[in-house]
Specification:
This is TIR domain-containing protein. Keywords: NAD. The protein starts with about 40 loop residues before the first strand and ends with a helix. About 30% of the residues are buried. It contains 6 helices and 5 strands, in the order E-H-E-H-H-E-H-E-H-E-H. With about 200 residues, the protein is an alpha/beta fold. It has helices at about 45-65, 70-75, 80-90, 110-120, 150-165, 175-199; strands at about 40-45, 70, 95-100, 125-130, 170. The chain is globular. It has a single domain, classed as Rossmann fold (3-Layer(aba) Sandwich), CATH 3.40.50. Helix 4 (about 110-120) packs across helix 5 (about 150-165). The longest helix has 22 residues, at about 175-199.
């Protein structure tokens, strides 16, 4: 009688391919850019005449009333680009306060700001500080390489339009600074309210 040996199958090791987890790059959300609200008011002034007096007083009062205002000495920070910052502030503002003073017309920067306000059809409140409108004359002014000669005509046109706009007159020797600040703030608030109602 013959026996048939049954073959016992050898154990077979089956290797499983386990994929390695992919290196997933964690994408962190980018911080949202902080958008600063636009300026309501741009204060155009000759610093040597008014920075330490009416310009600063007006800025402080408007800020107290939550009227966002641009005054170069109070608003600009180290590293800011002069023209970009000023031009952007003028473009977005609703009201321009132009403080005309004895040495105003000697500054090409003041005249450039005024021309930009006029060209942007901004509401301008003139303050004739120690000067009469008839005395605002653009004489021989040397703007150097920054402003080409054709800019002078642009300045003259802006000055002509602004000085024939009804404004406030003030004598720093006899006038009441508090009264001037109050009157100007009232006018600005009224204009901003009218703009808000029309929007």
């Amino acid at each position: 009688m013959s026996y048939i040996r049954s073959r016992v199958p050898r154990s077979v090791t089956v290797s499983r391919y386990v994929p390695k987890p992919a290196n997933r790059e964690v994408i962190k959300p980018k911080p949202k850019a902080v958008l600063t609200p636009p300026y309501d008011v741009f204060i155009n002034h000759r610093g040597v005449d008014t920075k330490r007096s009416i310009a600063s007083l007006l800025y402080d009062r408007l800020e107290e009333k939550n009227i966002r205002s641009f005054l170069d000495s109070k608003t600009m920070q180290p590293g800011d680009k002069l023209y970009e910052k000023i031009n952007a502030a003028i473009q977005e503002c609703k009201v321009g306060i132009a403080i005309f003073s004895p040495r105003y017309c000697e500054s090409c920067f003041c005249l450039h700001e005024l021309a930009t306000l006029v060209e942007g059809k901004k509401k301008i409140i003139p303050i004739f500080y120690d000067i009469r409108p008839s005395e605002l004359l653009l004489k021989e002014v040397n703007c150097g390489p920054i402003f080409p000669p054709e800019e002078i005509e642009r300045f003259k046109m802006a000055l002509q339009e602004a000085k024939y706009t009804v404004g406030l007159t003030f004598d720093s020797k006899t006038g009441d600074f508090s009264d001037l600040v109050n009157r100007t703030e009232t006018i600005v608030a009224k204009i901003l309210q009218e703009n808000k109602e029309r929007a």
